[in-house]
Amino acid sequence: MSLKSTLVATIVAVALITLLFGAAISYWRALSKVEAEMQAAIAVGARVAANAVDDAEESADPSRRLHLLVGDFNGDRHVRALWQDSGGRTIAESVPAQPHRDIPDWFYDIFDQPERTVQVELPPVFDGLGKFMLQTDSRNEIGEVWDDIWNTLTILGLLCSLVLGCVYWLLNRALGPLDSLATALDAIYKSSDVPRMPEIGPAEFVQVYRGFNAMSERLQETEAKNRRLTEQLAAVQEEERADLARDLHDEIGPFLFSVDVDAASIAHSFDNGKTAEIPARVATIRESVGHMQRHVKELLGRLRSQALVDVGLLDAVDNLIEFWEARYPAVAFKVDAPDYSLGAAIDQAVFRIVQESLSNAMRHGRPTRVEIEIEDSDEGVLVEVRDDGHGFEGASAGVGSGFGIAGMRERVEALAGEFEVGPRTGAPGVVVRAWLPLRRTAGDEPRKRKQSVKRTTLNAQA
Known about the structure:
Elements: H1 3-55, H2 62-72, E1 79-84, E2 90-93, H3 105-111, E3 117-120, E4 131-136, H4 139-190, H5 203-271, H6 278-303, H7 305-310, H8 313-327, E5 332-338, H9 344-365, E6 369-376, E7 380-387, H10 403-414, E8 418-423, E9 430-437, E10 452-457
């Protein structure tokens, strides 16, 4: 049931209840009125008849006088006159006035009053002529009540119809904007095109329109952001696949070729009886297989960063450094990080920032020194990764660009943090800085704070 129908039905129900209550009051008032009119009418009629027969004492014809007295009550609206003999038979009876409008029998039955009969005392001159009586007749008075109620109901009916018409028109005008809003919401559900509601009309609806438009704008921004994230995710996945393919080709491929050559040499030496050369070839194969195992382990570590974080943030960062040291032995690394967990979400975010910063520095900056600093405080965690490489090419190339930097920024913003990347002040290279506020929830235990661990890895050339 619509809101409009509910409001109209409620108003109609209230109007009907009011009419019923008014009808009950009108009924009791009309009933009292009919009873009072009958009492007054028969009292007045009795006095009139008594005065008339008193004057008749001088009449020479009492019978004719009684006939005339009965005729005097013809057309009376409330009283009927009866002349009966001593045996109770009616000699003469007046004819009451008839209502000018037919009254329904059911209505007459509701207001009908028991007949009141009064016998008028006759003077001695009327002895032997019977008795004279007056009876009430409420039909005309009930007819007046019928007319009053009919007119009242007609006026109330017209008034209620006018009020309901005005209310319906006002509801259509007031609730019309809701239909437009419902249409707009349905359009959002069915299409990606978000409509904009005009901010006009009643003040209450203007506020609703503003909220709807703000929601629409935020929805559009969210959809655009999701599309960008999807594109970035696809690009990052493609970049990771390319890195894996390059690592496999550059690291695993040559050793597989070496194993194949050494295996063929073993077979050739065995066929030619040069068995003394076989142990050396076997040792070479084992060395190649060992190198491939270590490299595969490193690749798995890169793919399963969560497992590294599970062993501790500092150890996970050390594993990253070991990975890059194996490829760039001329680079010195310095780490200043807490030797305890900062929380699962913070650990994961810090690790990802360090991982991506190292990857960007080593692949694009060609540094000789990289410093990693993770500072924990009661307010939050500050992460800085500094290198002394070539930095950004040009004035601002690379600042805020690239899917890796965008991914770090979005990861930090998801935790209500702050992120920035740019050239170092007063020194060559790039600095990546992230601030992550701590979010404590009910049930979290305070972290056991320890001293930060400082580690410096220096190579022979550093």
